[in-house]
Amino acid sequence: MEFTRHPRAHFINNRTMEIFRKFDGLAGDIEKAQPPVDLWRKFVYCTSLSGSVLGSVDHMKQEDFDKVISPISVAHFSQYKLVDLLLNKLEGIGFHTCFPDDIGGRLTRDLVLENKILMGHECSSIQLTDEGILLGASFNNGGTMQERKLHCGLLLAADGAKSTVRELAGISMEGARDLQKLVSVHFLSRNLGKYLSSERPGMLFFIFNPDAIGVLVAHDLEHGEFVLQIPFYPPQQMFDDFSIKVCEQIIVKLVGWEPADVQVLDIKPWVMHAEVAEKYTGCNNRVILVGDAAHRFPPAGGFGMNTGVQDAHNLAWKLGLLLNGVAGPSILQTYESERKPVAISNTKLSVQNFKAAMSVPATLGLDPTVANSVHQVINSSLGSVIPRNLQKTVLEGLFSIGRAQVSDYILNEKNPIGSLRLARLRSILDEGKSLQLQFPAEDLGFRYEKGALVAEDCAETAQQAEKLKHINRSSGEYIPSAKVGSRLPHMLVKTLSSSSEGVLSTMDLVSGDKVQFVLIVAPLKKSYELACAMLKIAEELTLSAKVCVMWPQGSVDAKVRGSRSELAPWTNYVDVEEIPRASDNSWWETCQVSKNKVILVRPDEHIAWIKESDMVRDADSEVRRVFSQILCLNRQQV
Ligand SMILES: Cc1cc2nc3c(=O)[nH]c(=O)nc-3n(C[C@H](O)[C@H](O)[C@H](O)COP(=O)(O)OP(=O)(O)OC[C@H]3O[C@@H](n4cnc5c(N)ncnc54)[C@H](O)[C@@H]3O)c2cc1C
């Protein structure tokens, strides 16, 4: 693996934190190591970091802290720190990193058998063979480039937005390219961190003034760690123009005073795209794209890493079952049919968010589309006529005339134009039409419509589903649902077994340690019958499965007998009692279903099947049909 320590601050949404929560307490580690919420909950719009605040938006609500919709809150954490935590977790389960210098002449096969993670290796060639993929990984051995060959059955391409593997596999991207070119400046300044912590704490600072514009991302105010994003327009402005000195000067213009301790660590260009891979697998399904290799969004709304982690979560249990011979090979296709629509939808949302972010400068008279048009006109009219330096002068001259719109002279309450613009800005911010941080309707409410699930039991029409999507999207709210393909809604429950009494989330009913299916049932005769059939068929298929019996609050029976007699001889079940938030909302009401339904939950906490138990005549054959569909088995296998 080649290894880039991206200096990106990540907003981690509820769904990703739920996944991290089950990964050996990773979410807890993030919560401990992240900066305090009060230092990052706001986006601030200002003329400089010490100049006028044009507006600010607080993106955290009380219910985020009360954990109403999820057992865990959102977080804000730098990507490279997250990678370090992940590597620690991998060490904990026996995987160890090693670099070309540590390896010497050792055989690749031995390294793989010893669970070594080969750092400093870059996949540079792939070749499809009868058994899988023969991969070439180049590495620098004491100054000379060498190549190591590896055989693998499957190759997961998680090599980022510029994915070499994707290109080698001949998979193209679809969507909009080159939306914006930016320079990312990673720098430290404890003085600036201290100043912002006390004067105007926030995560994102959108700064517009006559000398410069930029977006400052505060990774960690306590440690004074920042990344500045500056748009640039080649070929008039080139990446090489952004020397350390130039970047320091821009920082001073945006801060409004000169922090004495600015230390620029890294300057990198990047290009914003809005694209999704035409397909998620290639080379006879031997290559599988994951994360940015499969999709690249504008980083507006924090969907990139979150979507990537959720791709991996979707794929992991399917791979586990496939490699253990429990699922059929076509389960891999369900990875694409489930995740690609999510990526397409998140791409659209990110573009929409990017436009919402741009509505603020546009309102202030700094319309980015005008900047792009000016740039295009210069490219087409002057591009081949006058030298680059002169074009640069013209472009920057025009930009500087544009930036005069945000001078104190214009942007003040006494100037009629300025006061109108400020009033418009206030309404954009108050009405939630600027860039938002949280998208619960999409983060938690996304739903798989086709894939490793039994979709036909879902009675609603496609039209109704579309209508529901619009309602959720326009309110931005997450509405819990037990529809097939949805994430299992969170609710607190109390376990009733004498050995382990405690309060947990319904999401904890699904094991984080093994690939296990869970059937949630109410204590009803027909539901118990289906539960027994499910446990029996799962055992036949060598599939790990568990039943969860959901008792209403205060059930005496549950405490006295539990489900022992109804589920005997099976012991892989748990009795839990609802702890509804509002006294009239049972688990089934929260899920908007009647309690004679049974709900089958997949190892990734998505609902695979829901059925009214009264409607099932032959429980065994119904469960067989359900598993064969979810696991993509053929007739002989069931
Ligand atoms: C400015 C900015 C802000 C962002 N903010 C957020 C946010 O708040 N929330 C969010 O969810 N997302 C955010 N993102 C998006 C997020 O950073 C990406 O979606 C995420 O990093 C993708 O993870 P990945 O593992 O797929 O790819 P990467 O993080 O790019 O990792 C790919 C890895 O593969 C390695 N590699 C590359 N080529 C090869 C090769 N040939 N062989 C072997 N290894 C290779 C690289 O060195 C790297 O280590 C942001 C992005 C940007 C640019």
TrEMBL record:
Name of one Pfam family that matches: FAD_binding_3
Record keywords, A-Z: FAD, Flavoprotein
Organism: Brachypodium distachyon
Superkingdom field: Eukaryota
Protein's recorded name: FAD-binding domain-containing protein
Chain segments annotated as coiled-coil in the UniProt record: none
GO MF term list: FAD binding; oxidoreductase activity, acting on paired donors, with incorporation or reduction of molecular oxygen, NAD(P)H as one donor, and incorporation of one atom of oxygen
This protein's encoding gene: LOC100846797
Gene3D superfamilies according to UniProt: 3.40.30.120, D-Amino Acid Oxidase, subunit A, domain 2 (3.30.9.10), FAD/NAD(P)-binding domain (3.50.50.60)
InterPro entries: FAD-bd, FAD/NAD-bd_sf, RIFMO-like
Domain FAD-binding: 3-346
